[in-house]
Design goal:
The chain has 355 residues and is an alpha+beta fold. The chain folds into two domains: 147 residues, Immunoglobulin-like (Sandwich), CATH 2.60.40; 132 residues, E3 ubiquitin-protein ligase SopA (Pectate Lyase C-like, 3 Solenoid), CATH 2.160.20.80. The chain has four helices and 15 strands. It has a six-stranded antiparallel β-sheet with strand order 1-13-11-6-9-8, with no helix packed on it. Strands 2-3-10-7 form a four-stranded antiparallel β-sheet, with no helix packed on it. Strands 4-5-12 form a three-stranded antiparallel β-sheet, covered by helices on one side.
C-alpha cells in the first residue's frame, strides 16, 4: 500500500511514524506498525513563550476494504488498545511520557480486499492532556494561585485549538497510488488572530479582576469549573466552601490547595495529587479517589461515606473525626494516621487496606 499523506502538526512535541509493511509471500497482507518521537515543543504566544508536551493521546485508525486478521497483544506500558471498537475502527491509547525506547510496535495484521482499500490513522488529544512545562512573559510572577490556574487552563485550551487540532498527526495509506495533492490541514490565519486576541483579553481581564473566587474567575474566562479542569495545574488554589459536586478533576494537581468545607460529593478525583491539601470538613460522599495521593493531607471532620479510595495513598493523612462508612479501601495505603483507633484500623484491613 502507498503512503499518500503524512503530516505532523507539532513535530517537536509528537512526530508519529506509521508504517504498513507487506507480509512476505502473503498477497495483499500487511502488518501495521507504530512509532513516535516525543519531546517538548516551544511556541511564541503574544509577548511570551510557552513550552508544552502531551500526557495522553489517542491513535484512531479507520479501515476501508481492509480485513483485520489480527490485533496483537502489546507488552508495552506506553500503548494499549481500547476495547469495544468496531470492525472498521480501532483505537489505541498512547502515553507519550513513557515513550522512550524508540522501537516500532506491531499493532495489527491486515488484508486488502479491494482496489479501494485504504487506511487513515490520526493522533488526537484534548486540552486536558496538554501539559504546560514552562511559561514566560504572559503574566507577572506574583499572580495569585487561583488566577494562575485559570490562565494556565486558557493557554492549554489555546494550544490545543491552534496547534493540535483537528489532529496532532495524520497518515493515509491506499492500495492505489494517487497523483492528487495530499489534503493537509491548513490553518486559518484570520481565525488564529481572533483566538490570539481573545486570549490576550482573557489574560488582561483575569489579571485586573479584583475577585479571587475560583468560580467567578472561571466564568469570566468562559470555563466551567465542573468539567474544564481535568488534568489541570491547580497547585495552591483556594476552593474553600465551594459547591463542586460531581466535578471532574481527574489527573489534576491540587497539591497544597485549600479545600476546607468544599462540596466534592460524587466528584471524579482519580489520580489527583492531593498531597498536603487541607480537606478539613470537606464533603466527599461518593467521590472517586482511586489512585489519589493524599499524603500529608488533612481529612479531619470530612465525610467520605461511600467514597472510593482504591489504591490511594493516605500516608500521614489526618483522619480525626473522618466519616469512613462504606468507603472502598482495597489497596489503599494507610500509615501514621491521626484519628484511627485499633478497631477502625482492623476494619479497614478487613476491607483490603494496607498498613
Amino acid at each position: 500500500m502507498y503512503l499518500l499523506e503524512c503530516h505532523n502538526q507539532c513535530p517537536d512535541c509528537f512526530s508519529a511514524d506509521l508504517k504498513l509493511i507487506p507480509v512476505a509471500d502473503k498477497q495483499g497482507e500487511y502488518e501495521f506498525y507504530f512509532n513516535a518521537k516525543v519531546n517538548e515543543q516551544q511556541e511564541s504566544i503574544l509577548d511570551g513563550k510557552v513550552k508544552f508536551s502531551l500526557r495522553l493521546a489517542k491513535l484512531l485508525v479507520t479501515f476501508n476494504d481492509l480485513d483485520i486478521l489480527e490485533i496483537y497483544d502489546i507488552n508495552k506500558d506506553y500503548i494499549q488498545i481500547r476495547k469495544n471498537t468496531s470492525k472498521n475502527h480501532q483505537e489505541w491509547l498512547i502515553k507519550p511520557n513513557l515513550l522512550k525506547d524508540n522501537s516500532s510496535v506491531k499493532l495489527a495484521k491486515l488484508k486488502a480486499v479491494g482496489d479501494e482499500s485504504n487506511l487513515t490513522a490520526q493522533i488526537v488529544i484534548d486540552k486536558s492532556n496538554v501539559v504546560l512545562t514552562d511559561i514566560e512573559g504572559l503574566w507577572v510572577h506574583n499572580i495569585t494561585p487561583n488566577k494562575h490556574a485559570i490562565l494556565e487552563r486558557k493557554v492549554a485550551e489555546f494550544i490545543e485549538k491552534v496547534y493540535l487540532s483537528p489532529y496532532v498527526s495524520r497518515a493515509i495509506f491506499s492500495y492505489q497510488k494517487s497523483e492528487t495533492t495530499p489534503n493537509f490541514h491548513h490553518k486559518n490565519n484570520q481565525e488564529i488572530e481572533q483566538k490570539i486576541s481573545s486570549l490576550k483579553n482573557v489574560i488582561q481581564g483575569i489579571y485586573q479582576n479584583p475577585q479571587e473566587d475560583f468560580n467567578t474567575l472561571a466564568k469570566k474566562a468562559n470555563l466551567n469549573p465542573l468539567i474544564d479542569f481535568v488534568g489541570a495545574n491547580l497547585i495552591g488554589v483556594n476552593l474553600s466552601g465551594l459547591n463542586l459536586s460531581s466535578a471532574n478533576f481527574q489527573d489534576a494537581n491540587l497539591r497544597g490547595a485549600d479545600l476546607t468545607d468544599v462540596d466534592l460529593s460524587e466528584a471524579n478525583l482519580q489520580n489527583t495529587k492531593l498531597n498536603g491539601v487541607d480537606l478539613s470538613g470537606a464533603y466527599l460522599e461518593g467521590a472517586n479517589l482511586t489512585n489519589a495521593n493524599l499524603t500529608n493531607a488533612s481529612l479531619a471532620l470530612s465525610n467520605l461515606i461511600g467514597a472510593n479510595l482504591t489504591n490511594a495513598n493516605l500516608t500521614n493523612t489526618n483522619l480525626q473525626n473522618t466519616s469512613l462508612g462504606q468507603t472502598i479501601v482495597k489497596g489503599a495505603i494507610f500509615a501514621k494516621n491521626l484519628g484511627l483507633n485499633e478497631e477502625k484500623k482492623q476494619e479497614l484491613i478487613s476491607k483490603g487496606a494496607i498498613f
